Fold these 2 entries.
Entry 1:
Amino acid sequence: MAAHIHILGISGSLRRGSFNTALLRNAQAMLPEDVSLEIADLSGIPLFNQDHEHEPPEAVRAFKAKIAGADALLFAVPEYNYSIPGVLKNAIDWASRPYNEQPFNGKPAAIMGAGGRFGTVRAQLHFRQIASYLNLLVLPRPELMVPLAHQKFDADGVLTDQDARDQLKAVVNALVEWTRRLG
Ligand SMILES: Cc1cc2nc3c(=O)[nH]c(=O)nc-3n(C[C@H](O)[C@H](O)[C@H](O)COP(=O)(O)O)c2cc1C
């Protein structure tokens, strides 16, 4: 494992004011030394069609290449109808095909989420089920759920809640340690 660790952040929301994308941006501002965090752009990924899994669209190729090139993945997962958003599932479905060359295999990852009263707990559990099929090596703990997210960020997307900031930093540091340990 190289000294430098490159993390790819993947948000399940395309919304301009997304709290989940904001979590990733806040993480970018609290990285340890020798760690970088790039946020993937899922907005150009079309709906999955298995007819094209061997010749995927350019946006999918680019997404798969970013996953393959990352040392670790950090997922920020909103909760939609007690599960993960279709945008994220669709992107994962594309990237997971063909299965024998899918880039999630053995990749260290962590998950977090910001949302309503329960802070995405149900979506995160669903995500862990998906991740087990992909053979993603998801950090068991610490967990980060940001409940009542609309009260925890300012108008510029800065996470203002100190507990949440401490937990976010703990997740990032634990992911880096997990990645070094697995490397
Ligand atoms: C289609 C849809 C379904 C949602 N379902 C849930 C839900 O099941 N549980 C929950 O706590 N919040 C739910 N919400 C609220 C979202 O979690 C909340 O809007 C969150 O801020 C979305 O993430 P974002 O800010 O990153 O876009 C839902 C929102 C949408 C648009």
Entry 2:
Amino acid sequence: MIARAMTETSLAQRLLNGDRRALARAITLVEDDRPEGWELVREIYPHTGKAEVVGFTGPPGVGKSTLIGALTKARRAAGRTVGVLSIDPSSPFTHGALLGDRIRLSEHFLDQGVFIRSMANRGALGGLSEAALQAALLLDAAGRQDVFVETVGVGQAEIDIIDHADTIVLVLMPGSGDSIQALKAGVMEIPDVIVINKAEHPLTDTMVREIRGVLSLANLDRSPEEVRGSWRVPIIKTEATHGRGIEELVSALDEHRAHILSKGQLSERRRRNLRNEVLAIATARMRRRLEEELREDSEFQHLLDEVVERRLDPASAAATLLERAAGVEQPVE
Ligand SMILES: Nc1nc2c(ncn2[C@@H]2O[C@H](COP(=O)(O)OP(=O)(O)O)[C@@H](O)[C@H]2O)c(=O)[nH]1
Ligand SMILES: [Mg+2]
């Protein structure tokens, strides 16, 4: 026990010192949903909140990983340390995926100032989203100044992760009309920055105009003060494979950060994000607890039989379940 505690203390300390191997091990612990992982996060949490977290979302194949590679290069050139979390089980951020790109990310794999990790482990009980958020905290505590999180903009889990970024970048490419539809329909929240990658495509400017149209429609629901005081979403054209437009993207990210800082929106945003995180973890644990409690519960089996036999509707059964759960833990008044 004592030996274990000592090892964990030193892991936290090594992590806080920016040790990459400690960071890698720590992320594995949270990815595997190990109690030591949660313990570690508890220990290092007071040291977090310094990293600038940028989330990148968008359909597969638009060039998110390549773009993050180019951006990493720019941030490194400015002397900043970078952490990258890729949460895309379909296209992990590997050497292989990046070979052939002009921007050789393999060079970053040798750079001590860059830490790249892809997460695809959905086996953990807590879920991928929970683990990814903890991993982002670990990168932050390890002193990474920029943390880039890549997710595919489809599932709810991915969207939850992106919710925890200070700045959200939606990456599209000419022809990804579905995403414009999603923006229009309000399915997708308006991001802070929109990137049209693969801008060498002849339909790029048409796409930029379409998106401007959607954004101005979105502004119609807002009061004039809201529009005046608010951020105007820039649309940046990039060609990630050739590093084109990256300077503009860097400026847009810096401007967005300055904007939310000046308006006090950063702390507001973080508060909202942390609230969501606390709720997400609590909900996941409650569900887990409930599932465990009900696994061999004959009363529940009976309730379920009633539902199956159409004598009781599902909502009433759920209400009974909740009443019973509340009854057990109800404090004496
Ligand atoms: N033509 C062109 N191809 C690009 C550009 N950026 C990335 N790609 C290529 O698009 C493919 C998908 O890129 P990737 O970064 O893996 O996309 P992700 O799935 O969004 O992460 C790769 O073959 C890249 O080399 C670009 O600006 N122009
Ligand atoms: Mg990718």
